[in-house]
Amino acid sequence: MKYSNQFKVVSGKKVRLKDIDSAFKGKHENHKEAAEEIEEDRKKLRKLQELLYAHGQCSLLICLQGMDTGGKDGTIDHILGAMNPQGCRVVGFKQPSAEELAHDFLWRIHQAAPPRGQVAIFNRSHYEDVLVVRVHNLVPHAVWSQRYDLINAFEQGLVAHDTHILKFYLHISKEEQLKRFKERLDDATKQWKISEADYKERYFWDDYVAAYEDALSRCSTEVAPWFVIPADHKWFRNFAIGQIVVEHLEGLNMKRPKPNVDLEHIRREYHAAKEA
Predict the structure, then answer these.
(1) Alpha-carbon span 132 to 148, nearest angstrom
(2) pLDDT, tens digit, 9 for 90 and up, residues 55-86
(3) Which of 83, 93, 212, 239 could bond 49 through an S-S bridge, CB–CB 3.0 to 4.6 Å?
(4) Which residues lie below 8 Å from residue 216, measured CB to CB, with a gap of 6+?
């Protein structure tokens, strides 16, 4: 079974994260066994992104969400590392600025949507406005509860203008998160990432699970699907997401445009210059 089918949230179906194995790793036992396929997908990603740019008729938006330490940065490194950075950019969404708060919650998101021929990866996204906002009661229930429909309409509008959307929830266990926090404490190169907020947010784990389940259930559509990716094993997370992105891009039937110059004339000019 393709991972795009296995991990895709069926539109209208209620998601229960406790029923999804965050430690799933498919047919491979470890990274070493999967390494060849992972590298092959990275090569395909590079070629497909170049084709997307040349085709110039559509764009790709990848949204990454998940609990702290879920692996958003690692996923970005894996995907972006396979692509030409000239045609791919990362946008991180943190606490809104005063200017952003003066507009509707989707204003800053729309400005970051990728133009045709480009790939954009959102590190967190518009879904923060039905997640952290909900968990910490930053706006009334009457406000955030209406945002699911607004998000669906917004994404449908992007798709109508040739932006393809893939949304990935990086699914880790509470135990795996604590293990990764410990790794940060012990690794001097990662200690800068540590904040007291990380540990305080663990007290809201169940609230976040409930918020994510509603977002995944209500906002996975045929045109902008959610995928719940088992992420306890970092290598499998990268493997599954890479495979899904490759499969989607391959299905777009992209083509390179025909030359808009007279190639024979250019060849004659080349040979004349060479003989001069």
Answers:
(1) 14
(2) 999 999 999 999 999 999 999 999 988 998 88
(3) 83
(4) 9, 15, 169, 226, 228
For residue 64, what is the enclosing H or E element?
A: strand 59-66
Question: How far apart, in whole angstroms, are the C-alpha atoms of residue 127 and residue 219?
Answer: 10
- Other C-beta atoms closer than 10 Å to the C-beta of 226 total 27
User: What is the pTM (predicted TM-score) of this model?
Assistant: 0.93
The domains of the chain are located at 3-275
Architecture per CATH, domain 3-275, reads as: 3-Layer(aba) Sandwich (3.40)
- For residue 272, what are its two tokens? 């004349």
Q: Which amino acid is at 44?
A: K
Taking the C-alpha atoms of residue 139 and residue 137, their distance in angstroms, rounded to an integer, is 5
Q: Given the structure tokens 């994404």, which residue do they identify?
A: 155
Q: What pLDDT is recorded for position 264?
A: 77
